[in-house]
Amino acid sequence: MNKKVLSACTIAALGVAYSLSVFAQAKPETLVKQRQAAMTLQGKYFGPLGGMLKGSVPYDQKIVERNAGYLQVLSRMPWDGFDPSTKGVKSAALPAVFTDTAKVKDAIDRFQTAVDNLAAASKSGDEGKTKTAIGEVSKACGNCHDNFREKQ
Ligand code: HEC
What is the per-residue pLDDT across 87-120, written as a single tens digit (0 to 9) for each? Predict the structure, then answer.
């Protein structure tokens, strides 16, 4: 093994150890804050796209493509924050998040698929197709909120 490969392996191993230890030590309150932060950013980057669908924001293919890319990453982030250790922490998550796990998983899968479809549609440059895909993402956010988030 040459030096470069060796150091890459060491870095990778350190990375795994580091992330595991961070996860193990994360306080329930911190996990809640982090999952809410990821949701807040989803709101930030999805908001204008919802506006484009409604017609209150001018359609801009470049912004849809950029935001869809951000959402692909963000849509992978909040879920490990719904750790059982956070059950007692005050938040807007309904208790069903921790009991109806198969349904949560379905809602996450549906959401991530919708976001991936939106990213692909935005790259196609087809406005109609892209707007349909924005609508599907919006439904996936709403579907999960209806079942797993306190009514706002
Ligand atoms: C699989 C379920 C699920 C999906 C999909 C989902 N959310 Fe959420 N969202 C939740 C839950 C549960 C909460 C409450 C979290 C808490 O209070 O800890 C939440 C909270 C939020 C919040 C409030 C964050 C805060 O600061 O308290 C925003 C904003 C939000 N979601 C936006 C979105 C948007 C936009 C989408 C789609 C692009 C989305 N969510 C998709 C489950 C989901």
Answer: 999 999 999 999 999 999 999 999 999 999 999 9
Residue 39 CA to ligand 1 centre (angstroms):
5
Specify the pTM: 0.87
Neighbour tally for 125: CB within 10 Å:
10
Atom 5 in ligand 1: residue holding the nearest Cα? 141
The b/e string for 56-78 (b: 16+ C-beta within 10 A; e otherwise) is: eeeeeeebbbebbbbbeebbeeb
Q: Which residues have CB under 6 Å of ligand 1?
A: 32, 35-36, 39-40, 42-43, 46, 91-93, 97, 104, 107-108, 111, 137, 140-141, 144-145, 148-149
* d(C-alpha 79, C-alpha 92), whole Å: 14
Q: Residue type at 54? A: K
